[in-house]
Amino acid sequence: MKTLKTRPGETPAPPDRSWSAMVARDWRRFWPVYLMILPVLAYYILWCYGPMYGILLAFKEYAPRKGIMGSPWVGTKYFIEFFASPYAFRVIRNTVLINFWNLVIGFPLPIVFALLLNEIRHTGYKRTVQTITYMPHFISTVIICGMLIDFTASDGVFGEIIRILGGTPVNLLSKPEYFRSIYVGSDIWQNLGWDSIIFLSALTSINTELYEAATIDGCGAFKRAIHVSVPGILPTIAILLILRIGAMMSVGFEKIILLYNGLTYETADVISSYVYRKGIVENNFSFSTAVGLFNSVINCILVVAANRISARLTETSLW
Amino acid sequence: MKLKNLIALLLVLVMATVLAVGCGSGGGKDVAGDKPSDKPEDATKAPGNEENMPEEGPDTNNGRPYNLTPVKYDNRADKYLNGINATKLPIVEEPITLVIWESFNSTVMQGLEESEVYKELEKRTNVKLEWVYPPVGQETDNFNLKVSSLDLPHIFVRPPAYTGGYHKAVEDGIYIELTEYYDKGLMPNIKWIRENKEDINRDFVDDDGKMFYFPMLDIVPTDPWSGLWVREDWVKELGLELPKTIGDWDTMLRAMKEAKGIAPLGLNIAKWYGVATNYMFAGSFEAGYDFINKDGKVAFGPIEPGYKDFLTLMNKWYKDGLIDPDFATRDADSYQANLANGQYGACGLAYGELGQAKLSGMQQDPDWKLTPVLQPTSYDGQEIHLHQDNATVRSARNYFTTRLIDDGIVEDAVKYEDYWYSQDGGDLCSYGPEGVSYEWDDQGEVKWIYPRLENDEGLDFWTLYPLFKLHEGPYLRNSAAYEFEPEVFECIELWDTQDSSWLMPENISQTSEEDRELSTIMAEINTLREEMTLKFITGQEPLDNFDKFVETVKGMGIDRAIEIKQAALDRYFAR
Amino acid sequence: MIKQTTGEKAFSVFNYFLLFVISIVCLYPIWHVAVASVSDPLMVFSKRGFYLWPLGELNLRGYKLVMQNPNILSGFLNTLFYVGAGTALSMFLTIIGAYALSRKGPHWNRLVMKIIIVTMYFQGGLIPFYLLVKDLNLLDTRMSIILPIAVNTWNLIVMRTAFAAVPESVVESAKLDGAGDWRTCWVIMVPMAQATVAVIALFYAVRMWNEWFNPSLFISSKTKYPLQLLLREILIKNDTKSMTQLGSVGQSQQESYRLLVKYCTIMVATIPILLVYPFLQRYFIQGIMIGSIKG
Predict the structure, then answer these.
(1) Which domains does chain A have, with CATH numbers?
(2) Which residues in chain A are closer than 8 Å to B161, comparing Cβ atoms?
(3) Chain center to CA of C60
């Protein structure tokens, strides 16, 4: 801060508001912070913005000899091709629905799990449960899907259970109405423990005095969770929720491909699996870039909206 | 305090510099493709004209017999294709190096340079080879990147398809056209084959008679390699004969279900060795899962009336519990497990897959026996025209790249590749060096003598063979030169008795615009086909709606697709 | 400890039980893989469905086959390097970045945040990325694995959130004590948010451990392959879908080990990284805030 020499009795002159002066002031005050952000910014500029011109491939017909910049423009040809497909609406709808259910059910559950785990007093038990529950996350998708296919077959484990309960077993993965439940359910199974880690770590930063105060005020475990734990990790929840909403158009194709079949295309075929199948027939970078760009734009819009809403409701936002 | 700030500042600047520039080359070696190849002094010495060829006879040409007419060995049947030996060895006086892009994955060797075949090839031809291997499973990505970054090897071995076809690849300056080298006479072995075998010639060239690739030639027929199988021990137990007609199949399956209490037929639709490749039962109704060639007229299998009959039959069998209820979701592992466990009485399978299931099956049931059967007939006197089969010229191809021109060694590379199509070259690749990997026994059969086959515990022929012989590749390949189970030959002989002329030829080609149009149309139709086939069979969609299905497919542009394919087929036969 | 009401006690019992059930369900996948990896190969091949105990006699033949690969040791050492160096670099950058972005003073913070977040949604794709690595002469180098993924935006955002949650009072008291930003970051911020820092370190380490895609693009010498890429090759070689070449493979005695090797490969690929988490759990200590406020 510039120290202004004022003579007694004089009011100090107003600070200089020009842009360059503000920048200069900012620099003087925060230059260590500037320096600390520099390497990170350099990383992004080099590795993320450097290749960014590849997005243009969505509007061009790629010719390797000419490179991306030299390839001829085709405008919105590939976008039109995508939307003209009779399946376009279906795959978009499926993508959104699967992610929607994954969000509505799969987002709160790790939080609840973290809260439950937080109530365990016995540290040994707590740590063991934590370690075990995060293991399925590491088992590769191929194995999990192999297990799922086995379990859901009419002579699989679930079939047996249904038979014991008196029903007739049926191949669950051949029924389009069950696909989303199986997909979301197995996602939760695989990721519950792993997703809860971040919430558990956030819970540790809550001041224990607050818990004590709440207990003295007569709060039971449930009330403590609602009034102390959740508000305490609210910034984390909000940020993660915003980021999750910003992934609404992205469903990984590997698991879908492993679990779906002709009978369940109606509910299982998503944008990424459709593009993948098309890519087998015809290896076309431009098409997949175009569809990817479409996904990105939608995701971006969603993230901006979610961010605004969150800023208003919780005072936490990404930017 | 200030000092600390300074240190921090320096540290941050260093980090930023490091990041921005990258840590230099990190001491890594150059990508193999960037190495300059040895000087091609021989480019001008190409002996293209036949006047310079040495006399025919044994022991000329560097110790290898030189013959311009095919060598007929006593131990080979007449139906085998024999080539000539028209290559003058060594191919180059000064060694040259070719960089090869090839997919490779083995637990017993580090690289293909360890193979006896390549060692011997180098000795004979004086051409050194260097390999660039794409990571296993990432071949397509790796290929696309290499092409996009113009980081080309000299030869692409069995690459994934180039977007837009190989014509476009030549336009784009990636592949080179080989016709001019053929016309110059640099490929005498191939020339002899092409001039004397018209049907093979068709598969070597495109519609205009131009050559773009070196394909694999199976001189010994070992296809078809997949078909229908039944549990012979069960059939015998039930007092039946091996099924020949659809009616027989019906009886047999019902009897199996009665007796064993399981759904006996392992059906697979789109995945593998099933309706898609085998024409499993669909062929009996003169329809198929994909395009078929009905005596020169292209038809799309799923909209043929026969397809409805096929679906009706499958639907009946499914309802009656004769087909595995989980067939739609079955993956490869549990399919084979079921086979071994006695959960299936009949299925479609490739003869290569037999070994696993057989071992496991016999462990549980010593009478376990799976026997191949023919495609059944659906009416008396029917002649089957559709079942899995392959042509002599296969779709495994080598492509030459423009880098050969840049490095000035095209002609030598062409001559080198041509050597593989000579009788000697083909033999070397099929069997390995004589005396090292094999020798002829008294009956004129190949006997494998490679030392590690005897000595190494737990390693058998199938793991070790890359060390002393080649597998797929552009040469006169004896595809029977492996250690096969006896069932394999049974299969080949049996299945070959049925005609397969209605299959679409593998080597037809379309222009790049046609290609794009076709793939756009077919991408949608294929999705519909997969869905509806399964739905009709499981009854989720009533069979009365079949006509609606046909209408929808027509609405998606199948007629245009058939047009394109027909034009391609006509051009093919006109080659 | 404050006495619990009966209701609370019941809930507590229920809680323990529920978590037990969840643990068992989550344990099953890895248990299944572990059990299958030591079972008899032919029985693994033919047995479908649910099983809890090793089939046939216990044996380690599958593991022997996996370890036979000549590059396994170098793969493992390479991965250790990638995980170690990669995580160190990532943590360094993420921490200073998160600190800088969590400061409310500088005017441009929101702008920089936006610049960074945009990259999460818009990427150039494979070809420009590859060309960039090529132009920087990083092809077939170990740096090409570490540098391009040094900073993960998601992790950066989470860390920033944690740093922003540290009360201003703590930071100010540090500044009053004469600490500059650098010192505040490493000596005050990091310990205050140690649980999050530990978690982000875990995320980076796991990601680097599992990384095979970028190496598959850039690395051509097998001696620089990380473990996952090697194991993936083994996995694919033993995958049924790849056994379709002309139908003439699948006859080997070794083929009967195919499924077994698949399971053993998963075990080798997963167990080491699983063992990291328990070590990090000691950072999950409640109430570290208290000391600094009072002190």
Answers:
(1) 1-75 (no CATH), 78-314 (1.10.3720.10)
(2) 283
(3) 27
C259 interaction partners in chain B (CB closer than 8 Å): 333
Choose among B22, B136, B145: nearest Cβ to C217: B145
C222 occurs within a structural domain: no
Residue C223 domain-assigned? Answer: no
Cβ neighbourhood burial of C209 (10 Å; 0-12, 13-18, 19+)? buried
User: Based on the domain organization, do C78 and C210 belong to the same domain?
Assistant: yes
Cβ neighbours of residue A236 closer than 8 Å, sequence gap 6 or more: A198, A199, A202, C158, C161, C162
For residue C241, the model assigns a pLDDT of 43
Token pair recorded at residue B570? 């006509």
C122 touching A, CB under 8 A?
Answer: yes
Contacts 24+ apart (CB under 8 A), A234-238: A234/A314, A234/A316, A235/A314, A235/A316, A235/C161, A235/C164, A235/C165, A236/A198, A236/A199, A236/A202, A236/C158, A236/C161, A236/C162, A237/A111, A237/A199, A238/A310, A238/A314, A238/A316, A238/A317
Per-position DSSP letters for A14-71, written without gaps between them: PPP-SHHHHHHHHHHHHHHHHHHHHHHHHHHIIIIIGGGGGGGGGGB---GGGHHHHS
pLDDT band at C253 (very low <50, low <70, confident <90, very high): low
Q: Is the domain of C206 the same as that of C120?
A: yes
Per DSSP, the three-state class of B28 is: coil
Task: Give how many domains chain C has, as a whole number.
Answer: 2
Pair (C12, C79) in one structural domain: no
- Over residues C221-242, the pLDDT tens digits come to 888 889 988 888 877 776 544 4
Is residue B396 over pLDDT 50? yes
pTM: 0.84
Inform me whether the C-beta atom of residue B226 falls under 8 Å from chain C C-beta atoms. yes
Closest CA to C289 of C184, C183, C195: C195
Which residues on adjacent β-strands are paired with residue B292? Answer: B299, B503
**C206: domain range?**
72-217
Domains located in chain B, CATH noted: 60-221+393-477 (3.40.190.10), 226-388+508-573 (3.40.190.10)
Claim to verify: residue C58 and residue C81 sit in the same structural domain: no
Cα-based angle B177, B183, B187 (whole degrees, multiple of 5)? 85
Instruction: Tell whether C287 is covered by a domain.
Output: no
- Is B272 touching C (CB cutoff 8 A)? yes
List, for residues A253-270, the tens digit of each pLDDT value.
Answer: 889 988 998 899 999 999
Cα separations (Å) of B384 from B249, B341, B347, C127?
16, 32, 19, 48
